[in-house]
Specification:
CATH topology of the largest domain: Glutaredoxin
Order of helices and strands: HHEHEHHEHEEH
Number of helices: 7
Shape: globular
Strand order of the largest sheet: 1-3-2-4-5
Distance between the termini: 51 Å
Strand content: 5-15%
Number of domains: 2
Length: 151
């Protein structure tokens, strides 16, 4: 039955269908990204959750690698549920909001990966620039979670 389904729908659709069962159950297949807003930061503080911000651009090859490899890993997707996961698109350089975000977080290039504690302060030693493997990124997520608990 599964082989017939795979043959008629294509292997990609088949894998997406069975991925939750392969990864241990009821896991969404992607990170639930939100746009950056002050309201989101306030909600993170109220819920005592750390925040992750992915500064990216459409033309950025390492950004696409992060999406395809690191951010799609089941372990990262599972852990992301403990965070407010935000994306900031820095593709356009003539947008005042974009430039304000770049200045506020001192983003010099993309990708820039920023972790904030639930109070909104950056956890500076967890900042990343460039591609990070799933294992490196997951370790940073775990460290951010630990620090959130002790805050």
């Amino acid at each position: 039955m599964l082989a017939l389904y795979a043959a008629t729908t294509g292997i990609d659709a088949f894998i997406r269908t069975i991925q939750p069962s392969l990864s241990g159950g009821n896991v969404q297949s992607t990170i639930q990204w939100m746009p950056y807003s002050n309201e989101t930061l306030q909600q993170a503080s109220l819920e005592n959750k750390p925040v992750f911000i992915d500064f990216y651009a459409d033309w950025c090859v390492p950004c696409k690698e992060l999406d395809a490899s690191t951010f799609s890993a089941p372990e990262v997707i599972r852990r992301s549920k403990d965070f407010f996961m935000l994306k900031v698109d820095l593709t356009s350089t003539d947008d005042r909001k974009t430039e304000a975000m770049r200045a506020k977080y001192q983003v010099k290039g993309v990708p820039t990966l920023v972790f904030l504690n639930p109070g909104g302060q950056e956890i500076a030693d967890l900042r990343g620039t460039g591609f990070e493997t799933k294992d490196v990124f997951l370790e940073k997520m775990n460290q951010a979670m630990q620090r959130a608990k002790t805050q």
